Amino acid sequence: MKKLLLSAILLLTFVCSVSAQVIEPKETPQLEFALQLRVTIGEAYRVGETPHGERIVIPITGGTFEGPQIKGTILNGGADYQLANKSQHRTELEAIYSIKTDDGVFIHVRNRGIICDGKDSQGNPTFYFKAAPQFEAPADSKYAWLNNALYVCAPEFSTEFKGIILNVWRVK
Questions:
Q1: How far is CA 171 from CA 16, 34, 72, 106, 109, in A?
Q2: What is the pLDDT of residues 79-119, one digit of tens each?
Q3: Best CA proximity match to 82, nearest among 171, 164, 169, 170
Q4: Are the beta carbons of 41 and 163 closer than 8 angstroms?
Q5: What is the pLDDT of residue 1?
Q6: What torsion, rounded to 10 degrees, do the Cα atoms 46, 49, 54, 56 define?
Q7: What pTM value is reported for the model?
Q8: For the chain, which has fewer Cβ within 10 Å, the N-terminal or C-terminal residue?
């Protein structure tokens, strides 16, 4: 029994030492611009403090989108469901909505991300806002390519546009 226990400890020690080694990646993922969404929004409302944080809902009222292989409108009726943790200066977001291409194809979108503000090591203000949209396009459509990749997006702010602009890249 002691030999079995000692063997198990030696094996575990070996496995842990092997798994602790960092192997340099052979490839760094690349990004390819996929589309820009210009999302119009309604007036935000607060559900209030919940067990998970402060819930804020921002209605999605429409907009447009365009990219090298896709173009269309954002449908009214979706929303951005945010969960704010003020003490952590962090907000989790989950936007759920649909888009319609110019040739009549409906695509479901679920975009999850985080917004953080704080200070860097020198005390300068920082702001981070990134999300990962997932697209659900009909498998038999020319937009099925949206189903088979990961995407990241970042906002672009404009004083001329009343809403939010999201630039979306496909991870290659």
A1: 32, 10, 22, 23, 17
A2: 999 999 988 899 999 999 999 999 999 999 999 999 999 88
A3: 164
A4: yes
A5: 56
A6: -20
A7: 0.82
A8: N
